[in-house]
Design brief:
By secondary structure, the protein is mainly alpha-helical. The protein is built from twelve helices and four strands.
Length: 288
């Protein structure tokens, strides 16, 4: 078991997560239900989660799987910042540390510690594997040295408050409830399932030294991120759904951007790479 002496409980993070999920419950009050509010939530969910987190924070920044036209990259990452999953620097640092030490006692959200730990407790409970201080530069010098990402690091809360103000001005409190609280809670859960369910439930197509799995329903909820065993086998790949039936909406987005030359240097595994690691037939994951 991990030591609990090296980090303190992150009460502010816990309080924010409770507040957001509690605020989302207001959607059950009939007075806050409007179809326009649901539409706003759905659009913002895709813009901040699918475009911002899956394409921006993950495939573009963390793994450099694709190179976006720089103004577009900044716009996409700004959308990811509005998902309130931490600053671009913190997100990239944590995820690169996860890949460096996947499912070991140095992984920030080691799935061997249990489903609840890898789902959300790792962010709140004492966690000695959180990367802090000067060590962050070792994992993400490219992000730390970027002035615009430093700006997003400092003003991520302000940007969300500006969005909330705009939603209130155009649609009232109902748009705020659905466009901020419900949307954030949903995108949190979809993203967290990649760390928890996609290291527990599903099948494994490739040999990897970890517990990553391909989980179809996480992939549908998480914009293609649930094809997680594929991703851990080939972290550099811009495409996570590597079989024809593994639907990956983020990959479709990359392909669409490539048509307009807004996405270049798209990295994919070769057939030889896939054959070398392929498990035939795929292996069903063992749940614990």
């Amino acid at each position: 078991m991990r030591s609990t002496q090296q980090r303190k409980t992150n009460w502010p993070a816990g309080a924010v997560l409770v507040l957001i999920h509690a605020g989302a419950l207001a959607a059950f009050w009939p007075g806050f239900f409007h179809w326009s509010s649901v539409l706003v939530m759905a659009v913002l969910m895709y813009v901040t989660g699918g475009i911002g987190i899956a394409l921006g924070f993950h495939r573009t920044l963390t793994h450099r799987s694709v190179k976006l036209w720089k103004p577009l990259e900044y716009a996409v990452v700004t959308c990811g910042t509005l998902a309130l999953q931490g600053s671009p620097t913190d997100w990239v640092v944590t995820h690169r540390a996860h890949h460096a030490h996947t499912d070991t006692d140095r992984d920030p959200h080691d799935s061997n510690e249990g489903f609840r730990w890898s789902h959300f407790l790792w962010m709140v409970m004492p966690n000695p594997n959180m990367i802090v201080g000067e060590e962050r530069r070792r994992y993400a010098p490219d992000i730390i040295d970027d002035r615009y990402y430093n700006f997003l690091d400092r003003y991520q809360i302000v940007l969300t408050l500006v969005l909330a103000g705009a939603l209130f001005a155009f649609g009232g409190l109902s748009w705020v409830v659905w466009g901020i609280f419900v949307r954030l809670a949903a995108v949190y859960q979809f993203t967290w399932l990649v760390n928890s369910a996609a290291h527990t439930i599903g099948y494994r197509s490739f040999r990897t030294p970890d517990r990553s799995t391909n989980c179809w329903w996480v992939a549908l909820l998480g914009w293609g991120e649930g094809w997680h065993n594929n991703h851990h086998a080939f972290p550099f790949s811009a495409r996570h759904g590597l079989r024809w039936y593994e639907f990956d909406v983020t990959w479709l987005t990359v392909k669409a951007l490539a048509v307009f030359r807004l996405a270049t240097d798209i990295k994919l595994p070769t057939p030889q790479m896939m054959r070398r690691l392929q498990l035939t037939p795929p292996v069903r994951a063992r749940t614990r």
